[in-house]
Amino acid sequence: xxxPSLRVxxxxxxxxxxxxxxxTLFVFRPTLKVxxxxxxxxLWSGRGVDKALGRExxxxxxxxxxxxxxxxxxxLEDLDxxxxxxxxxxxxxxxxxxxxxxxxxxxxxxxxxxDPERTPNLLRAMNSDTSRIPEMKLGxxxxxxxxxxESLASVYxxxxxxxxxxxxxxxxxxxxxxxxxHAALLAFKALDGNGNGIADETPLGAAYAGGGxxxxxxxxxxxxxxxxxxxxxxxxxxxxxxxxxxxxEPAFKEALAYLRGLYADGLTDKAVFTQSxxxxxxxxxxxxxxGVILAQDILALLxxxxxxxxxxxxxxxxxxxxxxLVRRGQVKTGGxxxxxxxxxxxxxxxxxxxxxxxxxxxxxxxxxxxxxAVYSALRGEVPCWEIEPDEITRTWYAPVGEQCIGNALPxxxxxxxxxxxxxxxxVYGKVTDALVSYTRAFVTGEKSLETQWDAYLxxxxxxxxxxxxxxxxxxxxxxxxxxx
Length: 484
Prior knowledge:
CATH architecture of the largest domain: 3-Layer(aba) Sandwich
Structural class: alpha/beta
Low-confidence stretches: 20-26, 368-394
Distance between the termini: 61 Å
Strand order of the largest sheet: 2-1-3-10
Number of helices: 24
């Protein structure tokens, strides 16, 4: 008796001889199991990205829904599963570098950079700008396909927008210093800018939580150059090869004193140090309310029609110093990971998918269309990360930003064991908690800058800031070697 496999082969051959039209029913496409957040699955499926990339690669993408929260815990649970039960790809889970480092320390992730010849689009991206390579790597290895995407909002996130009508009504020029901005906000407070006879306006609108931290950096930047974006845990700088924390400098104390003055004069939302970007958007949607708004993306906050009433406020100057945060060349990692224990044939298919996403067609399919539509239409096969910033950026922010790059800490990757140690000790969270707590207390007046500044510095050290600086210094010193 023939084996079942031979009978199937004979049947397929008979159909081929009878006429090739029926044979398409038997074309086999291997399955590529992709674990993703619920929203990623909805996005890809809704736009047909999974089917389009599947056809290009000759695979069938099968989704594994990892929910919307606690996705890292789901990945940790996978460590105890047999290889056959694992997904081929972790897509868009948003894991942090320290979480990836912890997984890498357990040999759970594939080093996708070990054989760049199998990933030509990745190799092209690496060769086009070698300065990106350290940002793509973690401890000298590459565990994630990078998302090489930029938008105007992410390149220059520390933006401020001023209400043109209110400024003209007050008869004031565009503020160029912190002092003049303070004066303009005082004028806005007494202006009745929306003309309804009710004191329902707020001179300054900003957010502190939910990704809005870096917008506060616009007010801090004239005093001290630092990436004040607590959602990213970035507040380190480098000068003459020395890594330091800008949030411990005396100039940062001056910045906090300035913010304290704005708050004490009633010029900001009382919830400015607790409300999220979403809450700011909801508040701003209730009519003409704000004279100045700190926001990365004014269009997303107000919409096209209302945003037209605001103009970008140039970076402020204090004692001859002006700065703005630059994230040019932004590379996001952690969005495409491959389990190390899956079979080589599955690894090959997973690598092909990751590389296809960096190719022209994959770029067109995968990149979010919103940023491209707002800032500059994609032309032909221009990759997402080459979208040109508009005239606002070139005029106001880019010239200042070019001067700030020297003090900005370049993208670095700590060795997995260092990242795992900092994560296990909770250093990132503890330092951020101390910074958030004291900053809020200083600005609202709950704590005195004059009498409790030393206590603030001691709290940061107790949280592990010096260890963070030391390990970052090590990574900075060997950065040139990783580029090679």
